[in-house]
Amino acid sequence: MKGSIGIIGLGIMGGAMSRNLVAAGWDVVGFDVSEARRAEAEADGVAPAADVADLARRAPLILTSLPSAAAAAATAAAVVASGAEGRVVADASTLALEDKLAFAHVLSRAGHRPLDCPVSGTGAQAKVKDLVFYASGEAAAVAEMMPAFADLAREAHDLGAFGNGTRMKLVANLLVAIHNVASAEAMVLGMRAGLDPHQIVKLVGAGVGNSRVFALRAPMMAEDVYEPATMKVSTWQKDMDVIGRFAAELGVDAPLFKASAPVYDDALARGFADLDTAAVCRVLEARAGMARRAEGGTAITQSDRAGAII
Protein backbone atom coordinates (compact mmCIF):
# COMPACT_ATOMS: atom_id res chain seq x y z
CA MET A 1 0.00 0.00 0.00
CA LYS A 2 1.16 3.53 -0.80
CA GLY A 3 -0.34 4.97 2.34
CA SER A 4 -3.64 5.75 4.00
CA ILE A 5 -5.96 8.49 2.80
CA GLY A 6 -9.53 9.43 3.70
CA ILE A 7 -12.14 10.67 1.23
CA ILE A 8 -15.08 12.63 2.63
CA GLY A 9 -17.87 13.00 0.07
CA LEU A 10 -18.34 10.04 -2.26
CA GLY A 11 -20.51 11.63 -4.93
CA ILE A 12 -19.74 11.92 -8.65
CA MET A 13 -16.29 13.42 -8.08
CA GLY A 14 -15.29 11.95 -4.71
CA GLY A 15 -16.51 8.49 -5.66
CA ALA A 16 -14.39 8.48 -8.81
CA MET A 17 -11.38 9.70 -6.84
CA SER A 18 -11.77 6.99 -4.21
CA ARG A 19 -11.93 4.24 -6.84
CA ASN A 20 -8.83 5.55 -8.62
CA LEU A 21 -6.87 5.70 -5.38
CA VAL A 22 -7.84 2.13 -4.51
CA ALA A 23 -6.75 1.02 -7.99
CA ALA A 24 -3.44 2.85 -7.52
CA GLY A 25 -2.68 0.97 -4.30
CA TRP A 26 -3.79 3.36 -1.58
CA ASP A 27 -5.51 2.26 1.62
CA VAL A 28 -8.67 4.37 1.21
CA VAL A 29 -11.14 5.12 3.99
CA GLY A 30 -14.36 6.78 2.87
CA PHE A 31 -17.41 8.49 4.29
CA ASP A 32 -20.54 10.05 2.83
CA VAL A 33 -23.83 11.02 4.43
CA SER A 34 -25.55 8.82 1.83
CA GLU A 35 -25.73 5.17 2.84
CA ALA A 36 -26.07 4.15 -0.82
CA ARG A 37 -22.86 5.97 -1.75
CA ARG A 38 -21.01 4.39 1.18
CA ALA A 39 -22.16 0.94 0.08
CA GLU A 40 -21.14 1.58 -3.52
CA ALA A 41 -17.68 2.76 -2.44
CA GLU A 42 -17.25 -0.24 -0.15
CA ALA A 43 -18.03 -2.55 -3.06
CA ASP A 44 -15.18 -0.83 -4.93
CA GLY A 45 -12.67 -1.51 -2.16
CA VAL A 46 -13.04 1.59 0.00
CA ALA A 47 -13.00 0.90 3.73
CA PRO A 48 -16.13 2.51 5.21
CA ALA A 49 -15.89 4.96 8.11
CA ALA A 50 -18.68 5.26 10.65
CA ASP A 51 -18.54 9.06 10.43
CA VAL A 52 -16.13 11.93 9.74
CA ALA A 53 -14.51 11.64 13.18
CA ASP A 54 -13.84 7.93 12.67
CA LEU A 55 -12.28 8.66 9.28
CA ALA A 56 -10.08 11.42 10.71
CA ARG A 57 -8.71 9.08 13.36
CA ARG A 58 -7.81 6.49 10.70
CA ALA A 59 -6.33 8.63 7.91
CA PRO A 60 -3.42 11.13 8.20
CA LEU A 61 -4.29 12.58 4.79
CA ILE A 62 -7.87 13.65 4.07
CA LEU A 63 -9.40 14.80 0.79
CA THR A 64 -12.86 16.36 0.89
CA SER A 65 -15.32 16.79 -1.99
CA LEU A 66 -18.35 18.53 -0.55
CA PRO A 67 -21.55 20.04 -1.96
CA SER A 68 -21.90 23.17 0.16
CA ALA A 69 -20.39 25.59 2.66
CA ALA A 70 -22.55 24.05 5.38
CA ALA A 71 -21.14 20.60 4.63
CA ALA A 72 -17.60 21.99 4.72
CA ALA A 73 -18.19 23.70 8.08
CA ALA A 74 -19.68 20.53 9.57
CA THR A 75 -16.79 18.46 8.26
CA ALA A 76 -14.16 20.79 9.73
CA ALA A 77 -15.91 20.72 13.10
CA ALA A 78 -16.09 16.92 13.05
CA VAL A 79 -12.39 16.56 12.21
CA VAL A 80 -11.53 18.82 15.14
CA ALA A 81 -13.87 16.89 17.46
CA SER A 82 -12.29 13.57 16.45
CA GLY A 83 -9.28 14.11 18.69
CA ALA A 84 -6.94 13.21 15.82
CA GLU A 85 -3.82 15.35 15.54
CA GLY A 86 -2.10 17.14 12.69
CA ARG A 87 -4.19 15.95 9.76
CA VAL A 88 -3.62 17.33 6.28
CA VAL A 89 -7.14 18.21 5.08
CA ALA A 90 -7.26 19.10 1.39
CA ASP A 91 -10.60 20.47 0.27
CA ALA A 92 -11.35 19.85 -3.42
CA SER A 93 -14.80 21.45 -3.30
CA THR A 94 -15.84 24.54 -5.25
CA LEU A 95 -16.90 27.06 -2.60
CA ALA A 96 -16.78 30.80 -2.07
CA LEU A 97 -13.41 32.05 -0.87
CA GLU A 98 -14.82 33.22 2.46
CA ASP A 99 -16.16 29.72 3.12
CA LYS A 100 -12.77 28.19 2.34
CA LEU A 101 -11.10 30.61 4.74
CA ALA A 102 -13.59 29.75 7.49
CA PHE A 103 -12.93 26.04 6.89
CA ALA A 104 -9.19 26.66 7.20
CA HIS A 105 -9.54 28.76 10.34
CA VAL A 106 -11.43 26.04 12.23
CA LEU A 107 -8.91 23.37 11.28
CA SER A 108 -5.68 25.33 11.68
CA ARG A 109 -6.48 26.62 15.15
CA ALA A 110 -6.88 22.97 16.25
CA GLY A 111 -3.46 22.05 14.86
CA HIS A 112 -4.54 20.59 11.51
CA ARG A 113 -3.10 21.62 8.14
CA PRO A 114 -5.85 22.74 5.76
CA LEU A 115 -5.34 23.05 2.02
CA ASP A 116 -7.47 24.66 -0.66
CA CYS A 117 -7.26 22.25 -3.63
CA PRO A 118 -10.18 22.58 -6.07
CA VAL A 119 -10.05 20.65 -9.32
CA SER A 120 -10.67 21.54 -12.93
CA GLY A 121 -12.65 18.78 -14.59
CA THR A 122 -15.95 16.93 -14.63
CA GLY A 123 -17.05 13.69 -13.03
CA ALA A 124 -16.44 11.93 -16.34
CA GLN A 125 -12.90 13.29 -16.40
CA ALA A 126 -12.39 12.22 -12.78
CA LYS A 127 -13.12 8.63 -13.76
CA VAL A 128 -10.19 8.61 -16.20
CA LYS A 129 -7.90 10.82 -14.06
CA ASP A 130 -8.15 13.72 -16.49
CA LEU A 131 -8.21 16.37 -13.76
CA VAL A 132 -6.04 19.33 -12.79
CA PHE A 133 -5.57 20.14 -9.09
CA TYR A 134 -5.13 23.77 -8.08
CA ALA A 135 -3.43 23.28 -4.71
CA SER A 136 -2.77 26.10 -2.28
CA GLY A 137 -1.71 26.41 1.33
CA GLU A 138 1.29 25.26 3.36
CA ALA A 139 3.95 24.08 0.88
CA ALA A 140 4.98 21.05 2.94
CA ALA A 141 1.37 19.89 3.24
CA VAL A 142 0.85 20.31 -0.51
CA ALA A 143 3.97 18.19 -1.08
CA GLU A 144 2.51 15.44 1.13
CA MET A 145 -0.64 15.37 -1.00
CA MET A 146 1.16 15.35 -4.34
CA PRO A 147 1.58 11.54 -4.55
CA ALA A 148 -2.20 11.15 -4.18
CA PHE A 149 -2.84 13.92 -6.71
CA ALA A 150 -0.52 12.11 -9.14
CA ASP A 151 -2.82 9.08 -8.97
CA LEU A 152 -5.93 11.21 -9.51
CA ALA A 153 -5.00 13.78 -12.12
CA ARG A 154 -2.93 14.54 -15.19
CA GLU A 155 -1.60 17.70 -13.51
CA ALA A 156 -1.35 19.22 -10.04
CA HIS A 157 0.03 22.68 -9.29
CA ASP A 158 1.07 24.46 -6.10
CA LEU A 159 -0.34 27.99 -6.41
CA GLY A 160 1.10 29.26 -3.14
CA ALA A 161 -0.96 30.99 -0.45
CA PHE A 162 -4.17 29.35 0.76
CA GLY A 163 -7.09 30.54 -1.35
CA ASN A 164 -5.20 30.87 -4.61
CA GLY A 165 -6.54 27.48 -5.65
CA THR A 166 -10.10 28.76 -5.39
CA ARG A 167 -9.22 31.99 -7.17
CA MET A 168 -7.82 29.96 -10.07
CA LYS A 169 -10.78 27.57 -10.04
CA LEU A 170 -13.27 30.43 -10.33
CA VAL A 171 -11.38 31.87 -13.29
CA ALA A 172 -11.45 28.46 -14.98
CA ASN A 173 -15.12 27.88 -14.20
CA LEU A 174 -16.09 31.27 -15.61
CA LEU A 175 -14.76 30.01 -18.94
CA VAL A 176 -16.55 26.67 -18.52
CA ALA A 177 -19.85 28.50 -18.04
CA ILE A 178 -19.34 30.51 -21.20
CA HIS A 179 -17.91 27.70 -23.35
CA ASN A 180 -20.75 25.34 -22.45
CA VAL A 181 -23.44 27.79 -23.58
CA ALA A 182 -21.35 28.77 -26.60
CA SER A 183 -21.08 25.09 -27.56
CA ALA A 184 -24.86 24.70 -27.33
CA GLU A 185 -25.37 27.88 -29.36
CA ALA A 186 -23.13 26.57 -32.13
CA MET A 187 -24.79 23.15 -32.11
CA VAL A 188 -28.28 24.67 -32.36
CA LEU A 189 -27.23 27.03 -35.14
CA GLY A 190 -25.80 24.14 -37.13
CA MET A 191 -28.77 21.84 -36.59
CA ARG A 192 -31.24 24.62 -37.40
CA ALA A 193 -29.33 25.10 -40.65
CA GLY A 194 -29.87 21.43 -41.48
CA LEU A 195 -26.44 20.01 -40.58
CA ASP A 196 -26.07 16.61 -38.95
CA PRO A 197 -25.20 17.14 -35.25
CA HIS A 198 -22.56 14.40 -35.25
CA GLN A 199 -20.88 16.00 -38.23
CA ILE A 200 -20.88 19.33 -36.41
CA VAL A 201 -19.08 17.71 -33.47
CA LYS A 202 -16.51 16.10 -35.75
CA LEU A 203 -15.72 19.14 -37.85
CA VAL A 204 -15.70 21.75 -35.08
CA GLY A 205 -13.43 19.36 -33.20
CA ALA A 206 -11.02 19.40 -36.12
CA GLY A 207 -10.91 23.18 -36.40
CA VAL A 208 -9.88 26.26 -34.45
CA GLY A 209 -13.33 26.68 -32.90
CA ASN A 210 -12.86 23.61 -30.70
CA SER A 211 -12.51 23.75 -26.91
CA ARG A 212 -12.17 21.17 -24.13
CA VAL A 213 -15.73 21.95 -23.09
CA PHE A 214 -17.02 21.47 -26.64
CA ALA A 215 -15.14 18.17 -26.88
CA LEU A 216 -16.70 16.96 -23.62
CA ARG A 217 -20.23 18.28 -23.97
CA ALA A 218 -21.05 18.58 -27.69
CA PRO A 219 -21.26 14.77 -28.15
CA MET A 220 -23.97 14.74 -25.47
CA MET A 221 -25.73 17.56 -27.31
CA ALA A 222 -25.52 15.64 -30.58
CA GLU A 223 -27.14 12.59 -28.97
CA ASP A 224 -29.62 14.69 -26.95
CA VAL A 225 -28.77 12.49 -23.96
CA TYR A 226 -27.80 14.21 -20.71
CA GLU A 227 -27.72 11.37 -18.21
CA PRO A 228 -25.75 10.28 -16.33
CA ALA A 229 -24.72 13.83 -15.52
CA THR A 230 -21.05 14.75 -15.19
CA MET A 231 -22.20 18.02 -13.58
CA LYS A 232 -25.86 18.50 -12.73
CA VAL A 233 -27.54 21.77 -13.64
CA SER A 234 -28.71 22.13 -10.02
CA THR A 235 -25.18 21.71 -8.65
CA TRP A 236 -23.71 24.05 -11.26
CA GLN A 237 -26.01 26.85 -10.10
CA LYS A 238 -24.03 26.97 -6.86
CA ASP A 239 -20.84 27.49 -8.86
CA MET A 240 -22.48 30.19 -10.97
CA ASP A 241 -23.47 32.10 -7.84
CA VAL A 242 -19.95 31.85 -6.39
CA ILE A 243 -18.32 33.06 -9.64
CA GLY A 244 -20.78 35.94 -10.00
CA ARG A 245 -20.19 37.19 -6.47
CA PHE A 246 -16.41 36.81 -6.85
CA ALA A 247 -16.38 38.93 -10.02
CA ALA A 248 -18.66 41.56 -8.50
CA GLU A 249 -16.49 41.87 -5.38
CA LEU A 250 -13.47 42.54 -7.59
CA GLY A 251 -15.35 45.04 -9.75
CA VAL A 252 -15.08 42.90 -12.90
CA ASP A 253 -18.02 43.27 -15.30
CA ALA A 254 -17.80 39.77 -16.90
CA PRO A 255 -20.40 40.45 -19.63
CA LEU A 256 -20.18 37.04 -21.33
CA PHE A 257 -20.54 35.22 -18.01
CA LYS A 258 -23.58 37.35 -17.19
CA ALA A 259 -25.08 36.54 -20.58
CA SER A 260 -24.72 32.80 -19.95
CA ALA A 261 -26.44 32.84 -16.54
CA PRO A 262 -30.08 33.18 -17.77
CA VAL A 263 -29.63 30.12 -19.98
CA TYR A 264 -28.79 27.99 -16.93
CA ASP A 265 -31.70 29.56 -15.04
CA ASP A 266 -33.97 28.59 -17.94
CA ALA A 267 -32.65 25.02 -17.80
CA LEU A 268 -33.72 24.81 -14.16
CA ALA A 269 -37.12 26.32 -14.93
CA ARG A 270 -37.68 23.68 -17.62
CA GLY A 271 -37.08 20.84 -15.15
CA PHE A 272 -33.51 19.97 -16.17
CA ALA A 273 -32.07 20.20 -12.63
CA ASP A 274 -30.76 16.61 -12.57
CA LEU A 275 -29.47 16.62 -16.15
CA ASP A 276 -25.94 17.44 -17.24
CA THR A 277 -25.23 21.11 -17.85
CA ALA A 278 -24.93 20.26 -21.55
CA ALA A 279 -28.75 20.25 -21.45
CA VAL A 280 -28.61 24.01 -22.05
CA CYS A 281 -28.66 22.83 -25.67
CA ARG A 282 -32.31 21.86 -25.18
CA VAL A 283 -33.03 25.34 -23.86
CA LEU A 284 -31.62 26.97 -26.97
CA GLU A 285 -33.34 24.44 -29.23
CA ALA A 286 -36.67 25.30 -27.65
CA ARG A 287 -36.02 29.01 -28.10
CA ALA A 288 -35.24 28.33 -31.77
CA GLY A 289 -38.51 26.43 -32.24
CA MET A 290 -36.78 23.10 -32.70
CA ALA A 291 -37.83 19.63 -31.57
CA ARG A 292 -35.69 16.52 -31.80
CA ARG A 293 -38.10 14.22 -29.98
CA ALA A 294 -41.60 13.16 -30.89
CA GLU A 295 -44.45 12.82 -28.42
CA GLY A 296 -43.53 10.40 -25.63
CA GLY A 297 -39.81 11.12 -25.96
CA THR A 298 -39.15 8.95 -29.01
CA ALA A 299 -36.07 10.11 -30.90
CA ILE A 300 -36.74 11.67 -34.29
CA THR A 301 -34.52 10.18 -37.00
CA GLN A 302 -32.20 12.28 -39.13
CA SER A 303 -34.49 11.77 -42.14
CA ASP A 304 -37.38 13.20 -40.15
CA ARG A 305 -35.37 16.08 -38.71
CA ALA A 306 -36.27 18.69 -41.30
CA GLY A 307 -39.93 18.16 -40.54
CA ALA A 308 -39.26 18.51 -36.81
CA ILE A 309 -38.03 22.07 -37.15
CA ILE A 310 -41.02 24.28 -36.52
Radius of gyration (CA) equals 21 Å
Architecture of the largest domain, according to CATH?
3-Layer(aba) Sandwich
Q: What is the CATH superfamily label of the largest domain?
A: NAD(P)-binding Rossmann-like Domain
User: β content, as a range?
Assistant: 5-15%
The percentage helix is 40-55%
| Euclidean distance between termini CA atoms | 60 Å
How would you state the average pLDDT, rounded? 93
- Kindly provide the name of the CATH class of the largest domain: Alpha Beta
* The CATH topology of the largest domain: Rossmann fold
Task: List the keywords.
14 helices; Rossmann fold; 53% helix; 310 residues; alpha/beta; 12% strand
What does the model show?
The protein has 310 residues and is of the alpha/beta class. The chain is 53% helix and 12% strand. It has helices at 12-23, 35-43, 52-58, 69-81, 97-108, 123-127, 139-150, 164-192, 197-205, 212-223, 233-249, 255-269, 280-287, 305-308, and strands at residues 4-8, 27-31, 47-48, 61-64, 88-91, 113-116, 119-120, 132-137, 155-158. Strands 1, 2, 3, 4, 5, 6, 7, 8 and 9 form a 9-stranded mixed β-sheet that branches. α3 crosses α4 (69-81). The longest helix is centred in the middle third of the chain and has 29 residues, at 164-192. The chain is globular and about 65 Å long.
